[in-house]
């Protein structure tokens, strides 16, 4: 702020100088000199006329008339005032109020229309950025108010404008985007932070979380790939398992969700307050799996990958149930986003494809699973697939994807 006031003072001084120059160096007024020159010219002309009139005998007393003419010239000489004192006094009487008016108008108008309070607020929150950042980064989850979030966003954007290589700043801005459900800001900021520090654990986790919450399936798949890579590290953050478990549960891959939650329980131990919460999550996932295990009119399919399978960057998993004779037309089918393997899905009568024929009408069946990479079920070139043996309705079926068209 000091620099700001110094600059404004310089501008005001310049304005005052422009006001003072015309007053201190006024334009010379030549009215008196012009009048004197005019009187002299008139005097000379009149003398010439008197001489002509005297030669013609029209004037009797020429010397008296010349004396009167001289006296008239003297009487018409203007009185010259004392310029120094009077000019100095009049100049100061105009200059001082003018300078005061310029200063008053400049700062008065700025105070009224210049959003001084907003500028001051901006400067204050920029200085308060470290404290707000610590609150946001606090692992205990201290919540910031809406006003603090707005202030932190403004301060961060200001800082990142001048320091675009600040990975921590981009991470914080991404977390604010996540908190506000502004996925465009969250993903864009986390992506910049990840590009600057691709090995930082917090940044990788934040980027994966932002991608996981995206509506784009490619973003979600990128998040799963990133999280699965983090599972292979020497140290695995508890939040990696949490995100993978949440994603698996949303995709109805309850077996995988349970596996990740059990890993979290091993990490926190039974004395941790989170252990009981994880137990409830596991129980919830098992409850959703039980109907498929106990219901004789549904099929539970566990899907795994062969070692030679290379997953595409994008695609879907298509699971279809066929009659035991291997008929190409499926009795029931469903598609799922491409995620981590293995995972388990459940198909029942709600997935039936043929009118008048339900999945529950089958006594025995086979299950086919295909990874469709282009979104067109009619094209199969390069797609990976697998097929189960003949199984009974209501049993658990395992399918390994290990063949390619």
Automatic annotation (TrEMBL):
Protein's name according to its UniProt entry:
C-type cytochrome biogenesis protein CcmI
Q: Which UniProt keywords apply?
A: Cytochrome c-type biogenesis, Membrane, Repeat, TPR repeat, Transmembrane, Transmembrane helix
Domain Cytochrome c-type biogenesis protein H Ig-like, first and last residues per copy = 300-401
* Annotated InterPro entries: C-type_cytochrome_biogenesis, Cyt_c_biogenesis_CcmI, Ig_CycH, TPR-like_helical_dom_sf, TPR_CcmH_CycH, TPR_rpt
Q: Its principal location?
A: other
Keyword Plastid listed: no
> Which Gene Ontology cellular component terms are annotated?
cell envelope; plasma membrane
> Is Transit peptide set as a keyword in this record?
no
GO process terms (BP): cytochrome complex assembly
Instruction: Identify the residues that the record assigns to the Cytochrome c-type biogenesis protein H TPR domain, covering every copy.
Output: 118-275
Intracellular or extracellular location(s): Cell envelope
Sequence intervals crossing the membrane: 6-24, 92-110
């Amino acid at each position: 702020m000091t620099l700001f006031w110094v600059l404004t003072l310089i501008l005001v001084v310049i304005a005052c100088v422009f006001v003072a120059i015309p007053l201190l160096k006024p334009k010379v007024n030549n009215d008196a000199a012009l009048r004197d020159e005019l009187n002299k010219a008139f005097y000379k002309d009149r003398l010439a006329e008197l001489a002509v009139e005297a030669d013609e005998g029209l004037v009797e007393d020429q010397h008296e008339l010349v004396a009167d003419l001289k006296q008239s010239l003297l009487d018409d000489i203007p009185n010259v005032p004392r310029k120094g004192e009077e000019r100095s006094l009049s100049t100061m009487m105009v200059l001082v109020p003018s300078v005061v008016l310029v200063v008053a108008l400049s700062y008065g108008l700025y105070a009224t229309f210049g959003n001084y309070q907003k500028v001051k607020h901006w400067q204050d929150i920029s200085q308060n950025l470290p404290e707000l950042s610590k609150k946001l980064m606090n692992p205990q989850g201290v919540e910031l108010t809406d006003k603090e979030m707005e202030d932190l966003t403004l301060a961060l954007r200001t800082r990142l404008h001048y320091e675009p290589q600040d990975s921590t700043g981009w991470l914080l801005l991404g977390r604010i985007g996540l908190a506000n459900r502004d996925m465009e800001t969250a993903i864009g900021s986390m992506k910049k932070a990840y590009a600057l520090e691709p090995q930082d654990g917090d940044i990788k986790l934040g980027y994966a979380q932002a991608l996981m919450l995206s509506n784009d399936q490619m973003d979600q798949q990128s998040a799963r790939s990133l999280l699965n890579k983090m599972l292979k590290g020497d140290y695995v953050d508890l939040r990696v398992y949490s995100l993978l478990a949440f994603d698996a549960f949303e995709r109805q891959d309850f077996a995988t969700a349970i596996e990740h939650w059990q890993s979290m329980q091993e990490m926190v131990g039974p004395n941790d307050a989170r252990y009981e919460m994880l137990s409830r999550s596991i129980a919830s996932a098992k409850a959703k799996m039980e109907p498929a295990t106990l219901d004789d009119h549904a099929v539970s399919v566990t899907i795994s990958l062969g070692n030679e399978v290379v997953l595409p960057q994008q695609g879907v998993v298509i699971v279809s149930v066929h009659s035991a004779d291997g008929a190409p037309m499926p009795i029931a089918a469903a598609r799922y986003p491409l995620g981590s393997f293995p995972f388990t899905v459940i198909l029942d009568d709600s997935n039936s494809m043929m009118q008048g024929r339900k999945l529950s009408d089958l006594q025995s069946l086979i299950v086919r699973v295909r990874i469709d990479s282009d979104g067109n079920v009619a094209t199969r070139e390069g797609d990976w697939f697998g097929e189960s043996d003949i199984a009974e309705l209501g049993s658990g079926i395992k399918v390994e994807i290990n063949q390619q068209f």
